[in-house]
Amino acid sequence: MSDTVVKVDNLTVTLSGHLILDGLNFEIKKGEMTAIIGPNGAGKTVLLKTMLGLIPYSGKIQWGKGMKVGYVPQRFSADKDMPLTTREFFKLKTDNETEIYRVLKDLEMGHDEHHIERHILENRLGNLSGGEQQKVLIAWAMINNPNVLLFDEPTAGVDIGSESSIYQLLKKMDENKNITIIFISHDLSIIKIYADKVICMNKKLICTGIPEKIIDSDVLTKLYGSEASVYLHEH
Fold first, then answer.
1. Minimal CA–CA distance to 125: which of 155, 181, 82?
2. Does the 4-74+147-224 domain belong in CATH 3.30.310.50?
3. pTM tops 0.70
4. In which element (H, E) is residue 8 found?
5. Could you give the count of Cα atoms lying within 13 Å of 111 in the half-sphere of its Cβ?
6. In this structure, are residues 47 and 6 in contact, taking their beta carbons and an 8 Å threshold?
7. What is the pLDDT of residues 191-218, one digit of tens each?
8. What's the chain's average pLDDT?
């Protein structure tokens, strides 16, 4: 269908003789900001990498016509001594300065080119804050105008203030820029605020639907076991 971003049928992944994903079935529509949740070892990161075509699988992954996919990995930590500026990092992907400024402005990393130039592009990656580094990674993924962005824990390692800011930007991108967001998160409070849809998995699909309607104690027990507890912090 024309509004389908991706449809996954009976997706199964086996690595080194271990079953990692077991017959997953789900569909994501355009404009749905979709969260993927599950315990450590549930196969969430493997799922994203498989959707990107990086891991062999059986079953079917069908992307909608013309879909261009960007990806932001789980962690990126640039050492302060690494002799690489933000501009040099972007130059590894594009020589289009106009495009670089555009994506950085879209992520609110500066209101004018002077600020972006002096405080972001001329600075070493390792001198940027954790939140700024993460936004640079998102900007990198936005080069060439993808219409789908996959995020493996988009705020891992950043402070709560930056975390909220990043999710607000992702939601704005999802709503205003015709970009469909698919992200992994362990924070149920974030999911209930920002996600339109949730995929609950532990190798197999446990449930999928609107977060506030399907995430309850029974689902959490299936995902995390009988001792599961939820810590919801305010943003």
1. 82
2. no
3. yes
4. strand 4-15
5. 0
6. no
7. 989 999 999 999 999 999 999 999 988 8
8. 87
